[in-house]
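Retro notes
What went well: the complex prediction finally ran end to end.
Inputs used:
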Amino acid sequence: MIKAGIIGSTGYAGQELVRLLLGHRETEIVWYGSKSYIDQKYYQVYGNMFEIVPDTCLDDNMEELSEKADVIFTATPQGLCASLVNEDILTRVKIIDLSADFRIKDVSVYEKWYGIEHKSPQYIGEAVYGLCEINREQIKGKRLVANPGCYTSCSILSLYPLVKEGIIDPDTIIIDAKSGTSGAGRGAKINNLYCEVNENIKAYGVTTHRHTPEIEEQLGYACGKKLLLNFTPHLVPMNRGILTTSYAALSGKYTYEEVRAVYDRYYEKEHFIRVLDKDVCPETRFVEGSNYVDVNFKIDERTGRIIVMGALDNLVKGAAGQAVQNMNLLFGLPETMGLEQAPMFP
Amino acid sequence: MIKAGIIGSTGYAGQELVRLLLGHRETEIVWYGSKSYIDQKYYQVYGNMFEIVPDTCLDDNMEELSEKADVIFTATPQGLCASLVNEDILTRVKIIDLSADFRIKDVSVYEKWYGIEHKSPQYIGEAVYGLCEINREQIKGKRLVANPGCYTSCSILSLYPLVKEGIIDPDTIIIDAKSGTSGAGRGAKINNLYCEVNENIKAYGVTTHRHTPEIEEQLGYACGKKLLLNFTPHLVPMNRGILTTSYAALSGKYTYEEVRAVYDRYYEKEHFIRVLDKDVCPETRFVEGSNYVDVNFKIDERTGRIIVMGALDNLVKGAAGQAVQNMNLLFGLPETMGLEQAPMFP
Amino acid sequence: MIKAGIIGSTGYAGQELVRLLLGHRETEIVWYGSKSYIDQKYYQVYGNMFEIVPDTCLDDNMEELSEKADVIFTATPQGLCASLVNEDILTRVKIIDLSADFRIKDVSVYEKWYGIEHKSPQYIGEAVYGLCEINREQIKGKRLVANPGCYTSCSILSLYPLVKEGIIDPDTIIIDAKSGTSGAGRGAKINNLYCEVNENIKAYGVTTHRHTPEIEEQLGYACGKKLLLNFTPHLVPMNRGILTTSYAALSGKYTYEEVRAVYDRYYEKEHFIRVLDKDVCPETRFVEGSNYVDVNFKIDERTGRIIVMGALDNLVKGAAGQAVQNMNLLFGLPETMGLEQAPMFP
Amino acid sequence: MIKAGIIGSTGYAGQELVRLLLGHRETEIVWYGSKSYIDQKYYQVYGNMFEIVPDTCLDDNMEELSEKADVIFTATPQGLCASLVNEDILTRVKIIDLSADFRIKDVSVYEKWYGIEHKSPQYIGEAVYGLCEINREQIKGKRLVANPGCYTSCSILSLYPLVKEGIIDPDTIIIDAKSGTSGAGRGAKINNLYCEVNENIKAYGVTTHRHTPEIEEQLGYACGKKLLLNFTPHLVPMNRGILTTSYAALSGKYTYEEVRAVYDRYYEKEHFIRVLDKDVCPETRFVEGSNYVDVNFKIDERTGRIIVMGALDNLVKGAAGQAVQNMNLLFGLPETMGLEQAPMFP
């Protein structure tokens, strides 16, 4: 049994990790970390866990935790993991960081977009960007995994084959993204109150959202050069789900079948990526609760552009499920272990 | 492996049964029955099942199905199961009927409240009312199970110990119930359109809802005499979940501890019934996707009444999960098999 | 033109008052009071008011305001109005208090249920309970109006004729109420976050909600004796709307027509109370944005009980609209002025 | 008093027209047309209109109606208005068509995108495109107004100044639009059921939505040449509201102030267009129930693109409110009459 500790287990992503690990037959959770609920019963914070999790919330002591666990998940705000990690800890445990601390290789880019100083730049180099479908082999054996962002995972996975194969002009990429409200976290903010979010849609972080450089970096690796793109997130009145609608100019004339063949080549064997049938649009409701990403595209011959759509559950494939998938790779388990439940609808 | 066939697999309850059986390691689904989608791929009806269920929908031929399956689930409108079942079929397979056809022992009560003629009254006697926590031993070995209604399960399980022990006056019971919209089915009706249900709450079926006699019958068994009660369902703008708030006069002076002890005696060992901590009210969000029923009560000394609350997921413990629990009992499997996932929140 | 000042204009009820008064042709708002947003533009707090309300938020100085206004609305937490009001102020302006401070005649009941000391018990006697359909004549000419609670208005207006005429046994009244989330206010609390309220229904304040004694007092006046009842509120995932479903034993045999005649006698001429056609259940969507209360009832001959339903918009007839109706009475204007808009659906 | 008839008064847009005209002091509704509810009371179709509209629904007889009314609104599916209108009718009444029949000047474009034959192409020339802020003078005195589409109004009004002034390259325009579900109409379709729309977001009509050529035509007039653009609508789980997020390459270097000055020049005096403060994003909740369009933009210096956002209520400025605004122009009334209510929030 893998002993897992979660720092930040009382946020939405942390709790989703709890839910998934409870159903993972090779893992037991040994530490329910929390900043706000220390010494409270976990089920008092999340009533769904009553009679399932009898544990009490502990503090965010990574040092102590690293002596009890085989793997630590940090589902915390930016900066915390980087401020806690050190060589001793990394010698003892694997760390899967769900925050952005180790996602961006250029520390100055991180510090500019996040507005904080990076406390452990020395580990950025060794950290691997944990998008399993792209970096599968590099993840195995690593001790520090940077779990990708939710918007990022959806954006990258849906566009990756096109960028990699030069089918689209990378300088024309525009990503219009829509997210459920759990992505905004469980903080008590007026903007996230029911009556403020319900019956509303809005863009936010226009031109400044922090997932922008992360997408740019990863897609830049795919096409072998730097690229700049537009990324605009929107808040949607629903609990879970991310949909990205991306636009780019095709680099030439392509038929549906040609582009489809490329997607199939990359994703046919990927368990968690479903390229939908022709003309079927991804919908967030059909991935809810699961680790799937649904992808599809449509060519617009009139404008010479392609529209690419991706849908995932921000708390699963966009956070906790991806983290479990990374854990499976790190520990040599089947990659789908604990992640095989069908999406729940309605 | 148990071979399962589902008649009515393309309704919401039928699809939930598919989801649960896919995660049940001793079962395989051999028949996806449907009235409206014959010859269509199941995943074209429910996009969440893409790349998970490759099967094509078949018709509602119970005769043919009974030769291929070990158990048949009928998740169909009232009357269909009673019109299809016969001795040959019952000799070959177990039937778990999610409709109301075999729930009510008095056929005249059934015919009056449902407004249809019962086509197989000869099997009403042998059918067992499949509320496992109450009829566990009677269910084992049966060949025909009447799976309880969603409102009914919540109402009965929350009130049962009080009625059975004479703690409340059974003639004073009032049940005010609230349900998510999946309970209304997947039929294309204006009343169930998004814009009609959203931002609204209403009562319906006031004094005439068909779950009334079912609750009365079962609670009548508990107290050993006929009783009449008020049951008022409401439609709530949410997908899943039933909450019942029940009121009754206490038959005497009782303390919290005394009543609590009664609940514990009945339910402490029941895996799927969670009696919450004092003063914690059941909420539907905390049982979503799971087979749990959350129960609690509050004594009002001012009025001498007790308020009893129950919450469950209408598609799981209120339908498909209960059906799987019954299947487990029928086939001698651990009762919780395939039903162990934690509730999904948010 | 009536000069109106609003203390607490940045809560949901306060903002609804702004919306309604902007459409009231005999009123102008001279004071946008706020505790949290002093010196900010009102439209920065409520973006809907951009280019409509150019004013800046002022503090809660009732003394100063009373010299500029003809009427003061206090849409504030309990206790504030009672702590600010004095003889000087009452000499200069009319006060319509949307809080509970002057609703309950017995100060000890107020202090017990609200858990705070009443700072101005000397004005409780002169304050009038501002439910216009019941106390119309007493309101005219008063200087201090206690605007009723949202749940209370719905409960009282739907039950009043039955209690007053002795058609039901007042000791058997049970009110099961459901409210949209704007009733919980605009405070930044985790419990009111979108993801906590959405896809959920729960009871709260069971046996202890503060609107209980207010309903008991007013219905007690109607039947001429003290009564105790059960009142259970529920939180519904929608922005606006209150539905009450009330149960009581009939005091004798009554036909639909007899009870209907009583309702008609009381309400036929009431503009804002709509007694629906037989068998039509009130729904909150059909009163949204308006000052209407929709009422109906159903007799259950089996149990001898009557089920009474009422629906209103908690921010209009349950708060701001009722307050404007009171203002109209105080200033001798047509009672419906500024309140004539049809409900907005969907 | 203007006598108004509504053909298609029982759809969502038709009912919104009823709501607005009830509050318009110079209009009375003389005809509640309906295809599905002939001879039923209007309030039985829309319960909000109980005791407000006592009228019975009539058929869609435009001939007869034209003898009773001064203006006819057709809020019907495509093709109906074109099939009913004739010279006699147009001699007697003004027609404001909320369908697409007379919006597109090139009949072959209409027939290609809508897939139906145009029954009255002879009137396309004289019909005026009823976007008042752009065609105000041309609308006055006309007898046939093509009321713009909901997505179209939002897209055009938010982009118009930039296209007209050559600030963006018109061949780079990408419009990503999001709509509430009332835009899908009141038809009984499974796809529009509560449980199918709730907790979901999806794109639809990708590259093929019929509002595309309408936007292209109108923006083409603005820049004086044909243009092709991408328009992708999405369905959002909310009742009302459209948000468009548009992307285009700037034609040169522009500062915020320069672009802002252009918007102000076009819209400062427009009552219904609100250009928000710098960095404030339009949100649909802040225009709900009103005729406002909220507009803003953000320049991305990194990519050389501008992101333009617009928000309106699809049933008001996107349909019925726009129609009333057109009626006001046609009859020489103040353009804002009956449209002055503040947006309702929450």
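What we learned: Chain B has a mean pLDDT of 98.
What to try next: split runs per interface for comparison.
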